[in-house]
Amino acid sequence: MLQRKIKNRTLEQFHEELQRTQDRVPKHDVTIKLGDMNAKLGKEKLFSQVVGRHTLHDISNENGETLANYAISNVMFLISTGFQHRNMHTGTWISADHQTINQIDHVMVRKGKLRLIHDVRRKGGYNCDSDHLLVQIKIKQKLIPVKNRQIQKYKCDRQLINQKEKINKYQENLQSKLQEIEEETDINQDRQNLKQATLEVGTEFRLSEDVRNAICWWDGECGRATREKNEARGKCIMRETRTNLNIYQQKRIKANRNCRRKKKEWIERKIIELNETNRKRDKRKVYKDVRNLSNVATLVCRHKTATYILSEQEQTSERGQQYFKELLNPETERINT
């Protein structure tokens, strides 16, 4: 009973915060809300103004009623129930025994913008590694062209820049390129030629998209485990037997454990490198490495004495509390010292 009260209170707080956020959005903006609502929407006449005829369920549950009332108060429509599809293309959640399919992931849009959404349906064939299924939304929106576009910036590979042989080769290529260019009487054209020659010669120093977007801890072992998992899932979809399902679950557990282990080992190596860099007083590299670690959902920070890096969750939380106490109460800290 107590857990139910806590759950209801949390849900009320979420809807209050969602309503405050909705009130701050301008009325002329396109507002689309989507996600796991955990709400079954039925075909009751009471909610016919916000729920379409092609919903998978006949009776709404408690979350469905709350969601429908929210849509009514904000003049929105649950467009995910407005398109006719087969049941297998409408359900978005499947139970562990693969016997029950529910439509609990929904898409809402303002009633004045319904024409933007052309279709909402379940998209099969993709392995999301979840009991929820992928939902595809087709949106047609006219975009306003931007005239003043920013120049595309490229990142350079710093390892190549630090190599003396590469620098010498770059200087030779740039010198020969400049000699080929004829002198212009127009200074603007001369500047444009110089810029073009510099960019063309420096292409070998650019960091490729594959390198920039690569996962640092991902290797061949992770790739093989993931491919085996996807192959097992494909067999399970083609022929859903107990044997194929057990094989897929084993491959899935193996792949997830392998990825977590590789990521943990990489983080531990980076923390050791961070401590070594911190001892050398290379502040710029320390800041860059800490920022990169933060991008992989790992919280790290320096100790108060700046002698080593903290990586444990309890240590970083304690250091954060200590830092903000000193920041917000400087006079108290001065008296204590």
Write the layout of secondary structure elements.
Elements: H1 2-23, E1 32-36, H2 62-73, E2 76-78, E3 93-94, E4 101-102, E5 105-110, E6 117-122, E7 135-139, H3 158-161, H4 164-180, H5 187-201, H6 209-212, H7 220-238, H8 242-279, H9 283-294, E8 301-302, E9 309-310, H10 313-328, H11 330-336
Antiparallel strand pairs: 1-5, 2-5, 3-4, 6-7, 8-9
Helix pairs in contact: 4-5, 7-8, 8-9
What does this structure look like?
The chain has a three-stranded antiparallel beta sheet, with helices on one face. Strands 3-4 form a two-stranded antiparallel sheet. Strands 6-7 form a two-stranded antiparallel sheet. The protein is extended. The chain has 337 residues and is mainly alpha-helical. The chain has eleven helices and nine strands. It folds into four domains: 133 residues, Deoxyribonuclease I, Chain A (4-Layer Sandwich); 48 residues, no CATH class; 82 residues, no CATH class; 38 residues, no CATH class.
Regarding quaternary structure, what we see is single chain
Q: What would CATH call the homologous superfamily of the largest domain?
A: Endonuclease/exonuclease/phosphatase
Terminal Cα span: 50 Å
Q: Which CATH architecture of the largest domain is right?
A: 4-Layer Sandwich
Structural class: mainly alpha
CATH class label of the largest domain: Alpha Beta
CATH topology of the largest domain: Deoxyribonuclease I, Chain A
- Overall morphology: extended
Specify the helix fraction band: 40-55%
